[in-house]
Design a protein that fits this description.
The chain is mainly beta. The chain has helices at residues 29-35, 92-98, and strands spanning 2-6, 13-17, 22-26, 40-45, 50-53, 57-61, 68-72, 78-82, 88-91, 112-113. The protein is built from two helices and ten strands. The strands form two sheets. The protein has a seven-stranded mixed beta sheet with strand order 6-7-8-9-4-3-10. Strands 1-2-5 form a three-stranded antiparallel beta sheet. The structure holds zinc ion (2 copies). One zinc ion binds next to loops.
Length: 150
C-alpha cells in the first residue's frame, strides 16, 4: 500500500510505501527541542519507503547532532526528520491530516521512548521505556502486563 500525504500548503507531497519500521511516542529532549513538541509522535521508515515529490523543500542539519529535518519552504511543515540511523521519521500529525484528522491504527504508536526525559505524564497501557526500546521500563512496568505480549 502507498499512502500519500502532503504539507499544509500542498507544495510538497510524500508517498509512504509499505509499513513503518517503528511506531513510537518519543519523549527525548532532543526531539522536543528539534521539533518543538512536548512529545514527538511519529513512525520511522527506511529511506526508500518515503518518496518526496515537490522541489520546494529544504533540509536543516542539527548543528550538534546526527539529525536533520526536511521542511516545506512555503508553509514550514516538517515533512520528515532523518535520525542518526538514517531512517526517515514522519510526524503522525501529517499522516492523520491526510486521513481527515484520524490516525490509522496501522500507524499508532506501540511504545513510549525516553520516558525518563518526559515533560508530561501519559496514562495509557503502552510500554514506557526509560531510554531506548532495548532498555529498562518505567517503574511500575517492571513486569510487563501479559496483554502487551512482551
Ligand atoms: Zn507546504
Ligand atoms: Zn526523541
Amino acid at each position: 500500500m502507498a499512502l500519500r500525504i502532503t504539507c499544509l500548503c500542498g507544495t510538497n507531497a510524500m508517498q509512504l510505501h509499505g509499513t513503518p519500521a517503528a511506531q513510537a511516542n518519543c519523549h527525548c529532549a532532543t526531539c522536543r527541542d528539534f521539533y518543538g513538541v512536548a512529545v514527538f509522535s511519529a513512525t520511522a521508515w527506511a529511506v526508500e519507503s518515503v518518496t518526496v515529490s515537490g522541489a520546494e523543500n529544504a533540509r536543516f542539519q542539527h548543528p550538534a547532532k546526527q539529525l536533520s529535518r526536511t521542511f516545506c519552504l512555503n508553509c514550514g511543515d516538517v515533512l520528515f526528520g532523518t535520525n542518526r540511523l538514517g531512517m526517515r521519521v514522519v510526524p503522525n500529525a501529517l499522516v492523520a491530516r491526510a486521513a481527515g484528522g484520524v490516525l490509522d491504527a496501522a500507524f499508532a504508536p506501540t511504545m513510549h521512548l525516553f520516558y525518563r526525559e518526559r515533560v508530561i505524564d501519559v496514562a495509557d497501557a503502552l510500554p514506557k521505556y526509560l531510554d531506548g526500546w532495548d532498555g529498562p521500563l518505567h517503574a511500575g512496568q517492571d513486569h510487563p502486563q501479559p496483554w502487551l505480549g512482551l
